[in-house]
Design brief:
- This protein is α+β, with helices and mostly antiparallel strands.
- It folds into 2 domains: 189 residues, Gcn5-related N-acetyltransferase (GNAT) (Aminopeptidase); 177 residues, 3-Layer(aba) Sandwich (Aminopeptidase).
- It is built from 13 helices and 17 strands.
- Strands 1, 2, 3, 4, 5, 6, 7 and 17 form an 8-stranded mixed β-sheet that branches.
- A hairpin with a 2-residue loop joins strand 10 and strand 11.
């Protein structure tokens, strides 16, 4: 069986990209991170390079700039009157981002910018491949083709590649093993937000008390923050990542871009607010960055709060920020709130203890991981442990 051909999409324009947008919107396994909205966000993200490959099938492959005749998404066997044998359609898609840490700004470090970029480059795939309808064999061939296409593009440009799965891909393990990926156990938490009352009663008694006390003490929820408020949120987040989380954090400009909705999605459907803040006496004390796939899922991507400073006043900033996002999802008719990970099941993880008190359903979709550049990986891991501390 002949594998589909892959095309690397560089820009959100043209008939093929429009077909990808429709294909992904209709796909049951689509996530925000495999959608048109994320592609547009990533094209403006200074520390990222978006990589999108489309698998197409057809007798003749024409210029990808805009001469495709496309069948309906996810309908590989449909017959349309008047179509030709050289009709081309999408068999699958896969989106990744090559991420770097923000560029070194100190003048004396400028000669090391190239080395810094090479050592911090890593490829992350949030979600997973989207495969069109077909037989099991057709799907497996499409998956192999997409994984190899992405790896061929990124393996010399990034230290490692990691798939952060957001749906069950256990059947795909043999294919990933063939491509040198290792399976890693990884937990996640999903909250059913339809209706709101179910999400509210699903939380622990202590979490509900903390939300009520925070609001009674004067904490307020801000759904449309201004630029200065986003800066204040970023300052809290930056300190948290430097002192406690000890992991790379995107630049300030990224969060302003996220708040604006990236490069404006093509869809006319207005998304829910991607950044929600908590204030007290007009001071920003917490926030959550929660991108949205309209009508389907809201995600907790980044969250922070001045908890130690305000807990003594019966205000629980991080708890209220998280609940505000969950409640907002319910009010926007978004049925699922996704916490985007709770660590490895057999390792202690304080963040898991925080999240699990919001109720919900634990799932284990795991991750796939492979090292692309062994020497760079060893050097990067050493530098990472020096900067952030060994994990």
């Amino acid at each position: 069986m002949q594998p589909p051909k892959t095309i690397h999409i560089h820009h959100p324009s043209g008939k093929l990209y429009d077909a990808f947008r429709r294909f992904s919107e209709a796909h049951p396994d689509v996530s925000y991170f495999q959608s048109d909205a994320f592609f547009r966000l990533a094209t403006g993200w200074a520390e990222a390079e978006v990589v999108l490959f489309i698998a197409v099938k057809g007798q003749k492959l024409k210029d990808p700039g805009g001469h495709y005749r496309l069948k309906k998404p996810l309908d590989l066997k449909a017959k349309q009157s008047g179509t030709k044998e050289d009709e081309t359609f999408i068999a699958g898609s896969l989106m990744a981002v090559i991420l770097h840490e923000p560029a070194l700004k100190q003048p004396w470090l400028r000669p090391f910018r190239g080395i810094h970029q090479k050592l911090t480059a890593r490829t992350i795939i949030y979600g997973g491949p989207l495969l069109g309808e077909g037989t099991r064999l057709e799907k497996e061939i499409t998956l192999k083709t997409l994984v190899r296409a992405v790896q061929d593009h990124v393996k010399k440009r990034s230290v490692f590649t990691e798939f952060r799965n957001l749906y069950d891909v256990s059947d795909c393990k043999p294919i990933f093993r063939e491509n040198n990926f290792q399976w890693q156990e990884w937990l996640n938490l999903l909250i059913d937000t339809s209706p709101r009352e179910k999400a509210w009663t699903g939380m622990s008694d202590n979490r509900r008390r903390q939300v009520k006390k925070s609001l009674d003490a004067g904490a307020e929820i801000v759904y449309t923050p201004g630029p200065e408020q986003i800066d204040a949120f970023y300052d809290i987040l930056k300190e948290l990542y430097a002192k406690k989380v000890r992991k790379p954090l995107p630049s300030r400009a990224f969060f302003h871009l996220l708040a604006k909705g990236g490069q404006q999605p093509a869809s006319n459907q207005k998304p829910a607010s991607p950044i929600i803040l908590i204030t007290h006496q007009e001071r920003v004390i917490a926030g959550i960055a929660c991108p949205v796939l309209p009508g389907k899922v809201m995600y907790e991507w980044y969250v922070c709060g001045l908890d130690k400073e305000y807990n003594a006043q019966d205000i629980y900033p991080s708890v209220l920020a998280t609940w505000a996002a969950i409640e907002h999802a319910a009010r926007q008719n978004i049925p699922v709130f996704n916490f985007l990970g709770m660590g490895k099941p057999n390792q202690e993880y304080g963040v898991r203890d925080f999240k699990i008190r919001f109720g919900g359903r634990q799932v284990e979709y795991g991750r796939f991981f492979t090292v692309n550049r062994l020497l760079r990986y060893a050097l990067a891991k050493l530098a990472y442990n020096i900067k952030y501390g060994a994990s």
